[in-house]
Amino acid sequence: MEFWVMQTFYGLSYGSLLFMLACGLTLVFGVMKFCNVAHGSFYLLGGYMGVTALRVTGYSTLSFFLAIFVGGLTIAILGAAIQRVFFRKLYGQDLPQVLITLGFALIFQDLVLVIWGGDPYRVTIPAPFKGAFHLGDLYFPKYRIFMILAAAVVAVAIYLLFEKTNTGARIRAAADDEEMAGGIGIKIPLISAGVFALTAGLAGMAGVIGGGFLSLYPGAGLIMIPLAFAVVIVGGLGSIKGAAIASILLGLIDSFGKTLIPDLAYFTMYAPMLIILAVRPTGLFGKPQ
After folding, report:
1. Residue 203 CB: number of other CB atoms within 10 A?
2. Distance of CA 281 to the CA centre of its chain
3. If I label 8, which of 114, 134, 247, 286 is the partner at 20 to 30 A Cα–Cα?
4. With left for phi above 0 and alpha for psi between -120 and 50, is residue 224 left, alpha or beta?
5. What's the distance, CA 130 to chain centroid?
6. Helix/strand/coil for 150
7. Burial of 288 by CB count in 10 Å (0-12 exposed, 13-18 middle, 19+ buried)?
8. pLDDT digit string (tens) for the chain, length 289 residues
9. In the chain, where are the structural domains located?
10. What topology is assigned to 2-279 in CATH?
11. What is the largest CA-CA distance in the chain?
């Protein structure tokens, strides 16, 4: 019984990180119809910015949350800038989108190597998040609990933004019919830049939080992006609910797969994506495009 409880907990915590990484990708992919292969690099750069912020401000709990804010804000600004300069003319052009964002992913990887070097880094976890809660013979790491709570906060915030605010209504209108939305006064370029900044910022924040759990190194962004795409494909383009459920599903599969069938762990992580593509190409909660 202990095995099943702990593996479920580990799967939920890993799935929470996947959600924080993939929710921005599903928004930019499903809402803006833009395939951003560089999304994993935003995660990586955000993590390194968090490491740098902690070096400057110290390693207190307040500094940790400040590092999350700095990682998210700097990458949001970077995302908005490259969207305005490079990406905004490529909407509706699938192959150019993939090629230019892949190019940026490689550039960012080398940029990390030049600035921070090739050694792995970890975001320093503040003292209150170290250790574990004991429940009988079970040990629940505090940082994994924090990851679950952080993902819940992100999910609620995105839901409130898109479903309960005028800004969210404008974004949905622009996604459904860009020409009609522009005709009623919605500023499409501003909406596009704002959504891209939001998704990049979410990836940057995920990089700081994930950097306390997984190592940061120059190639980590290219490792994380297939996982994010797997979540988006299983959950459905543009569906935050789908991304949340897919993240939990893939997190659980990864946790149990690595323990029960370690030789096939990589396959089991992507098997749901293959099945979904064969049975329901739009994903669990996606709509036909």
Report:
1. 37
2. 21
3. 286
4. alpha
5. 23
6. helix
7. exposed
8. 788 888 999 999 999 999 999 998 888 877 777 888 999 999 999 999 999 999 998 889 999 999 999 999 999 999 999 988 888 778 778 788 889 999 999 999 999 999 998 899 999 999 999 988 888 888 899 999 999 999 999 999 998 888 888 887 887 777 666 667 677 777 777 888 888 899 999 999 999 999 999 899 998 988 899 999 999 989 888 788 889 999 999 999 988 888 888 877 777 778 888 888 888 888 888 766 5
9. 2-279
10. ABC transporter involved in vitamin B12 uptake, BtuC (1.10.3470)
11. 62
Cα gap 42→206, rounded to integer Å = 9
Interatomic CA distance for residues 4 and 245, integer angstroms: 19
CA nearest to 247, candidates 267, 271, 231: 231
CB of 24 within 8 A of CB of 200? yes
d(CA 29, CA 125): 32
77 close to 62: Cβ distance less than 8 angstroms: no
φ and ψ at residue 166, rounded to 5 degrees = -65, -35
User: CB count, 10 Å around CB of 261?
Assistant: 11
pTM of the model: 0.92
State how far the Cα of 231 lies from the Cα of 179, in Å rounded to an integer: 30
